[in-house]
Design goal:
Distance between the termini of chain A: 34 Å
Order of helices and strands of chain A: EHEHEHEHHEHEHEHEHEEHEEEH
Number of strands of chain A: 13
CATH superfamily of the largest domain in chain A: Dihydrodipicolinate Reductase, domain 2
Oligomer: homotetramer
Largest interface: A-D, 42 and 41 residues
Number of domains of chain A: 2
Largest sheet of chain A: 7 strands, mixed
Chain lengths: 355, 355, 355, 355
């Protein structure tokens, strides 16, 4: 049994981790660490845990946490905050899966530019292993410290990588139009996240300048340069990314526009995806059918669909994931499974909750 | 392993049964029977089953179904239709859990009056065992044919029974104000179920005359008369029931108003509930806290809260269930577990999906 | 032309007042007073006013406001705060319509008990005129200071008054089960008002102890004792009130349960309502049809429907209003029209916005 | 006073026309024609018209309609159906504003290719005047027959035209990612429009092949070739258009990606928009701020925002409209005002209904 603890347990990502881990057959949940809710009973903060294995857990403060008693720590802290705490905790020798943006870039300069904060632990950033499971499984297996990807980034990369891998599309003119449910913004008290401000409406935010732009672009460039296999390409990726907020609780849909280098066809593209994802358990490639959030919300699956437009020689790729699962906690558990050498879908077999 | 089949597999209750059963560790799903979708692949009708154990299932027609090859049949057909089919299927000797209203009344006259149809199989109705697990576990254990309760009925009875059991409240003036998500209406094509007609609005329907009124009242009277234990009361239950449609997908909240026979207190009432439900796994009694649909949606739990009003000597009981789970498919699986002598929460341990 | 100003202009009630008043053919909006947004341009706080007459307005602080330059002030402040400010402003001689709970009770003791604050201006509370237009039109005509009713209270009283007026129902056992959209809670930053916490769920709150309980009961008792006409009844009203939060933006639906004193019928009850509301422009009595929020959201109408239950001799009344309109700003404008002797529906003729 | 009638009165566009027209100070509504609801009272089909001027209207069949008694007919029929009926009605000499796609293309071949039906009245299509008011006001003034634009088309063209007009962007690589509320799909009974299928989810549909693609492209090409002014460009427009369904009732948001021909800046682009729209009452150009559906839903306004991305020399344009208003009925009334020489915003001054 794997003993796990969660730091930042009472954010939305934290509780999603708990929901998954308390039913994972090979996990024992050790400590739940929360600054704002320390010493409270978990069920008094989140009543849905009544009747679960966590029913009688009490949240503890970080200073009362002994990291060395756990086999794995999930750090579900905000970026900036995670830097210091994760780099402290790793000294205990316990493995960490970090959910923040702090350790996703080996190149600190890009991080500092897009996040607008100084990075105080560049050496840890350098050795952190990027946790997009389907891309980086081999390194994840042996990692000490895993940087779990951003939600938008996971949805985008899963859709783009096969097309870049096969050299079918131009890498410098990728457009990603992304739509996310409101849970992606966390539980922070902002007036623009109130029900009355979000319901029955929609908006774009941070066009071209959202931090996940830089993460998508950075990983694509690492990929082109051979960080994830033996390739070495001269090409550089450049992406334009616009996120939108939609009035749903969970789910991301990205619509990606790519220019083909040559004529193609729906059947060729389907083959490329099939080849790339082969036996992947959590990536579904659809043919003559489009993904929809309700088909995967509540599950760890990503669904990919696409349409080749003969008129303009472009491919429209549509990907959907549950931002709380494949976009955050689900992928973190998937990475944990890889790390501890157990079946990758252990504890992650749920089908979407529909209706 | 229990071999189960589902008749009426592609209605909302049918797919919820599949969602639960494909992950149940002691179940093998045998046949999925659907009239409207026979010969189609399940994933072409409900894409969320891609990646599940049911991925390669094909729906079959009733005439191609051999009931004797299953250990248990879930019949998820509409009332009226279920009458004939369930009474045919039971002849195979296979046990049945019937989800319709057709077999919930031993007294056929009440059924015929409220459902407005003739009952052609009164002998089967007589021997059907009512499937409110917490009320009728002993009979369910040995049943051949289980009539699974209505969704509103489950939410209402769980809230009312302990107060009647303890003789604290008047039985002839119970008012139930119930609110249900739209999935309760099924997948039928009616203009009043369109998104644009249901979103951002609310309405009452069938006040005082909804069929579930009669079921609640009937079971309460059976209870008073000793059908479920050794009691024998002179009292008669009379309820007034008003359902409402709310713009959510799943979940029922009932607000029940009961007149006390004498002064009481919140702490006395809490004790009554605690005593009544004792070690029940799926009923949670809250103290100084009110139930909320999000705390149980996606789980098989019922949550009960209450408030004693000293000014008017009334008790306000609030109960919430997920209409697809404890209100339908979840309770059916719970009954299956009882019937086959396995742990009652096997396959039903999921925590609410929140956010 | 009537010169009006709004104090507390940037709360939800304030902006609804502006939306209505900027299109009112006999109104000039003078000053918009806001503490939190003073000196900001209105369109920078609420962009929907771009393109309206208010496009170039700047919000001002209370200390820069000259009340005597307006003919009427709408005070849309929270209770407690309104007490002091309204009682200061009234000294200018300008008429006031106050939207808070501070001046709705002539009997200060009831206010202090239910609101839990001291009332520092009982003399003003005494002379304030209660602004349920259909009940109190004659006094409103000549008022100096109008206390606009609560939203739940308006929906409840409109449904109950005709039945009490005709002495058909018992006054001491009225049960009101009310459901409100989230805008009723205002724009305050509370985590339970976040989209992710309110969407796709429902809950009850403050059962039996919500402040509007006391207002409904108080006005009913005033009515019985002849405060609004020449009657003088020995009866006392006692109500039990449970509000619920539903995931819609605007709209209230109340389901009211009343015990009849004698046998009645749907047609008798319809006549009572018709007689009571006669030529009222904003109250619609439905026959053989139930009200629905979407039929009135965005309009100042109240819709009333009902069902007489022969089995239990009870009447179920269902009323719907838009909490922002007939429940707040719309009724305030209606009262302004009465006060200034212009057609009661001036500026209020909008039909519900559907879909 | 203008006497108007509506054919296809009980579709969603029809009832939105009624909502607007019954409050228009210079309009008398004459006949409401409906095939499916002929002889019914309007309020029995749409209860929200209770209390309005239309309260006592009865819907009539087409064969009982005398078109010559009206000054203007709004035809709100589906495409295909509208062809025959509008071309019959125009013979009466009464002016028509047609809401369908049938007469939006002077070039019948494009229509036939994208709509998949034969056009039986090419001569009427030739003389129909395209009703994007801001583009074509001069011709609308003198029109006999106006083809009102598609909803997606209006949102897209308003965002794109100023940039093409100023020759800043490439015309052959425009990408439009559009999102629409469900009312855009009308009231037809399709299972994918049920609440339970649309709520809390999102999907793309018809990528690259939606009919509105062809309309956007066709009008842009007409514009480039000088159909709307004296220009004559060699350039051809080519657009790639992907619509999505979002769980809101009304509203469209389009995110448009355009390649610049040269370096630009946010301030230059703002000037271009300002110059192009000058004194337009219904088009709002935002600076340093992004449009949001809630700011215009319930109003006839379009809001435009944009972001120049220096990294990729692209412009991201975001436009929002209410699909029922500026996207359909509102623009039709705007065109009626132009046609009859009255103030363009008569009857259209409503501010967005928020919250």
């Amino acid at each position: 049994m794997i003993k796990v603890s969660i730091v930042g347990a009472t954010g939305y990502v934290g509780i999603e981790l708990m929901r998954l881990l308390q039913q994972h057959p090979q996990v024992i949940i050790k400590d739940l660490i929360s600054k704002s809710n320390a010493k409270k009973k978990l069920v008094d903060v989140y009543p849905q845990f009544r009747g679960s294995k966590l029913e009688n857990y009490t949240l503890i403060a970080l200073e009362d946490f002994q990291p060395e008693d756990s086999d794995l720590i999930f750090s579900a802290l905000p970026h900036g905050v995670s830097q210091d705490i994760s780099s402290q905790l790793i000294k205990s020798g316990t493995k960490i899966i970090d959910m923040s943006g702090d350790f996703r870039y080996h190149d600190i300069e890009i991080y500092e530019k897009w996040y607008g904060v100084e990075h105080k632990h560049p050496e840890l950033a350098k050795k952190a292993v990027y946790g997009l499971t389907e891309l980086n499984r081999t390194q994840i297996k042996n990692a000490e410290f895993i940087a779990n990807p951003g939600c938008y980034v996971t949805a985008s990369l899963l859709g783009i990588l096969p097309l870049i891998d096969s050299d079918l599309v131009k890498t410098e003119s990728i457009i990603i139009d992304a739509k996310s449910g409101v849970s992606g913004a966390g539980r922070s008290l902002k007036s623009n996240l109130l029900f009355t401000e979000c319901h029955n409406t929609m908006k774009a935010y941070s066009p071209a300048v959202h931090r996940h732009s830089s993460e998508i672009e950075y990983i694509l460039n690492e990929f082109l340069q051979g960080s994830y296999d033996s390739r070495s390409s001269e090409q550089r990726a450049e992406i334009l990314f616009t996120p939108h907020l939609i009035p749903i609780k969970r789910g991301i849909l990205t619509t990606i526009y790519l220019d083909c280098k040559r004529k193609s066809s729906d059947s060729e593209i389907f083959s490329l995806y099939e080849d790339f994802y082969g036996q992947e358990k959590f990536v579904q490639v659809l043919k003559d059918e489009l993904p929809e959030i309700k088909n995967i919300a509540g599950s760890n699956f990503a669904q990919l669909g696409f349409k080749y437009d003969q008129r303009t020689d472009r491919i429209i790729v549509i990907s959907v994931i549950d931002n709380m699962l494949k976009g955050a906690a689900g992928q973190a558990v998937q990475n944990m499974n890889v790390l501890f050498g157990i079946d990758e879908d252990t504890g992650l077999q749920a089908t979407a909750l529909f209706p």
